[in-house]
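User: tokens in, sequence out, please.
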């Protein structure tokens, strides 16, 4: 999934993104939440951050930090100087509130001058916990 989100920046001739980590199987909802966060981070990096300039790089690494937890780190470098946002837009709300809630873990997001960095903790669930819902979807509240 990380490779899919960063595919446009993984050119072997001139890579602007590097990814590394062990293979991990995520529950569908957890993968979707992580994917949303990575998509938002990549979009912002392409518009304003490290992926907006030829010299910029993004590194995404992940590791199993507990039997039931995966830590995913996003780090930008070589881009324009970063300024913390002056208003809370949809992307920031998405990452800090929605993704955090869905993953049941805090999101550690920093706007360092040298580049945005973000750490997300993703649950590792047993494949038997991946069952599809049966019956009608719950009514919206």
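Assistant: Sequence out:
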């Amino acid at each position: 999934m990380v490779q899919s989100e960063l595919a446009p920046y993984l050119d072997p001739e001139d890579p602007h993104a590097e990814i590394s980590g062990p293979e991990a199987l995520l529950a569908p909802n957890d993968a979707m939440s992580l994917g949303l966060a990575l998509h938002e981070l990549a979009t912002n990096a392409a518009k304003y951050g490290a992926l907006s300039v030829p010299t910029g790089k993004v590194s995404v690494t992940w590791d199993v930090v507990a039997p039931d937890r995966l830590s995913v780190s996003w780090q930008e470098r070589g881009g324009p100087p970063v300024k913390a946002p002056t208003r809370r837009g949809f992307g920031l709300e998405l990452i800090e509130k929605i993704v955090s809630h869905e993953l049941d873990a805090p999101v550690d997001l920093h706007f360092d001058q040298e580049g945005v960095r973000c750490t997300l903790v993703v649950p590792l669930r047993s494949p038997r916990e991946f069952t599809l819902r049966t019956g009608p979807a719950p009514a919206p509240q």
